[in-house]
Amino acid sequence: MKLLEERIREDGVVLSGDVLKVNQFLNHQIDPDLMYALGQEFVRLYKEESITKILTVESSGIAPAIMTGLIMHVPVVFAKKQKSATLDGGLYTAKVYSYTKKVENTISVDEKFLNANDNVLIIDDFLANGQAVKGLLDICELAQAQVIGVGIAIEKSFQTGAELIKKRGVRLESLARISSFEGEKVHFAGDAEND
Length: 195
Description:
about 200 residues, two-stranded antiparallel sheet, alpha/beta
């Protein structure tokens, strides 16, 4: 998605450790127009599917997920990273290791929001090592929900996340695929000679 790639080139900052900082528009300050465009693209990619729920993990996946849900007119469920006093029923849980924060979290979804009748589209902001998506796939498996696909805003193709998802037989659609951060610049898959 050229619009997203342009925004990453303009406002993204490459940090050490293969980390891309996009807090200008995605995960601290949010550009609602851009998030709406992402939602439109996810809807275009999955329009032939009978999606009943969108699933993400807090917090940076919520913005693109909610815009996709708005356009599809389906509920958006987000897995919580911390136990809340309001979560008093049964929970589906999974362990997720955060690459950027170097911590393991237990994510959870209330059982009443996900079940065997659901056709789920997982949406997230980043795909690097795939741990967040793996956790969401595990939760869907516990709920016996059918995963229709995974939609990612920014994929770091040089890391293992995409392979992990494809090995599970799940359709993956990423809107911006980064092939490297060589020279502390963002290079996208398909760039002519990687710039």
